[in-house]
Each structure stands twice: as C-alpha cells, then as structure tokens.
Prior knowledge:
There is one protein chain. 39% of the residues lie in helices and 18% in strands. The protein is α/β, with parallel strands linked by helices. The mean pLDDT is 95.
Amino acid sequence: MKILVINCGSSSLxxxxxDMSDESVLCKGAIERIGMQISGGEENVIxxxxxxxxxxxxxxxxxxxxxxxxxxxxxxxxxxVIHSFSEIDAIGHRFVQGGDKYTKSVLIDEExxxxxxxxxxxxxxxxxxxxxxxxxxxxxVGPSVPQVAVFDTAFHSTMPAKAYMYAVPYxxxxxxxxxxxxxxxxxxxxxxxxxxxxxxKSINDLKIITCHLGNGSxxxxxxxxxxxxxxxxxxxxxxxxxxxxxxxxxxxxxxxVMKKLGLTPDEMDKILNKKSGVSAISGVSSDDRxxxxxxxxxxxxxxxxxxxxxxxxxxxxxxxxxxMNGVDAIVFTGGIGENGVWLRSKVCSYLGYMxxxxxxxxxQKTQKGAEAELTNSxxxxxxxxxATDEELTIARDTAEIVSNL
Length: 405
C-alpha cells in the first residue's frame, strides 16, 4: 500500500509518499510561496529522493496547481518514483483542530468538511489551509482515492475535564468551545509509542512525559497510553515560552499592555504569538542555534532566555510527575529536543530529586535524527532522545482506516 501524506499551510504544501509494506519514504518535499510571485533564483519547489535534494522555481497560483505539481513530480517528472498516480492507495492529511468532535482519525466526507469548517475559528490559520489541501487533492484525483484527516488534537482527547477545563464562566465552554485542546498530538503519539518499544514494554504499563521542543513546543503527560494533560491549550500559544510565543502569562498583563499601548485584540495576539518568547527575551533570534552561539559569547539576555526556557520546561515536567503520581520515561524530541544539548542537560539538572542523572558524554554527541538513551536501562526514571515522525503517524492512521473500508 502506498500512502501520500499532505500537510498544507496557507501558502505551502508539504508532501511525503510512503510504501507501507516497509514504511519506507519513496519521495518527500515541499512547495512554498503558493499564490505568490516567484522572483529570479527563488527555488520554491523541493524534491528529496534517495537521499538527494533537488530544487527549482515554478509559479503556482493555487493549491490545486501545487498538487498537480506534486502529481507530476511523483509520477511523471525526472525524479519520478511511481509509474502512475493510480498506484497511490490513499491520501492522509494533517488537520490541526478536531475540537470535541474528532477523537481519532477519520475518512473525509462532506460531513467532515462541514465540521472542520465550523471549527475554523478555533484554528483560523490552520484548518482552512488544511481543507484547501484536501479540496485540491479531490479536484485532481477525484473521489475514487480515499482521503483521511488526522487531527493534531485527537491524541489529547483522553484528557479528563479537570485537566482541559478553564476556570472561566462555564457557558464559554458550552457556547464557544473554550477549553484546553492540546496540539502536536501526532508527535506525542509517535514518540510515546516509540519509547515504549525502546523499553521493551507496553505503553499501557508506562507513565511517560513527552517533550516536543522546537520553535513551537509542548509537553504531554501520557499515563498508561492516555494523555492526561498537555501544555498547549485553547490555542498553541499556551504553555511555556517558545521561539516567538509567550506561553502562559498573567491574563492581566495582556489587558494592561493593551490599555497602555491602545492595542486591538489582533495586535495583541500578534505580539504574543510573533514578537514574544525566546526572541523577545534574548533580543537575538528565535532560532535556538543563534541563542546557543550568543550564550557561548556571554550574551546576558541570551543566557536569560535559555535559563527561563529550561526552568519553565522543568516546572511542567515536575507538575506532570505529580499529576501521574510518578514517571517511568521522559522523552526529548523535535528540532530543539533532538539538537539542544545545553537545554537537555539543564532541564535534567532539575530532576535529581527523581534520581535522574544523565550521561553527559552521550548527551553531548547525540544530534538530530539519532536515537539515544541518556540514562541506564536499570534507572527508575529513564531519559531518551527520539526523532519524531509525524508523517509516519499520519500514514499509519490512513492505512489502518483504508484497510478497513
């Protein structure tokens, strides 16, 4: 079975074709700047095959045009990996927000489309773009190829009400769906199952804390295979400080600043999402590599940004240990989770009370894409670095649904 995974943004389309017989990646890439003018030398089409990367520029006005280009790349172009697009058995789409409605992946039909559109106010930057990807695929391949929606929020749907409710008027939840949803669910699902495999145990016998750390970051408490709490909330803004996001702040800070500066809600939202976090504190960058370099040069604000970030992550881990009454494994994943040598070390330094003492030699040499255990297999609490694979999770869910049709 061959599954095509699609992840659409408002002006981008990422794709990955997988052969599910061995879960190998036949081809992957991205098309960027959809609907935008392409200037000379700006290569917006990316193709990766057999470890090689190819790029070129092509102006594509719509997501339908972009998907037609993907079809050409996979089945007709110079680097084609299949003889005909008819070899593709199904298409799996990443959808960000499934609300209370979707607690697992589903075959997309008209009802699903209508519901996702209704949920768009909860994810205005993502759900409409995700739907664009589905509609573009439908226009090109027609209804004969099954398409599946895999929701970021689904893995977190096991949270109890005591964890997902906010202490605001209850009717806000009833009327507007104001509650904690959580995000990065496909990543948390993949690495929690992966760490169970690494430990040689069933996920149903483990208490796991998964730390997805990147420009956007979240932490989840997975108790015997079920999420009982997660750091991101109503939107991906909640939680701890990220690249450009503030994470949780006193709500009165928001209203205070809005009054002081005469800001509109949209302007304040932009500040909290795009002009805060590590970038704002450091004054350097939102890129962790730049913060590491500045920190090494003694840049005080970069040092402060990193110290704050590590402290907040450690606090979340500590609170989730309390929520689950213990922990068996802690996992670092994502761009910073896999590359952030200093951050991993600093976070773990707060966990000595749990008997966590990592092997610094292993920590220092482990880089993105590698898997490693930073503790001993006999330790009460084990710490891992694992590469996440959200596309594989989407492909697996899609294959499972299609196999049962």
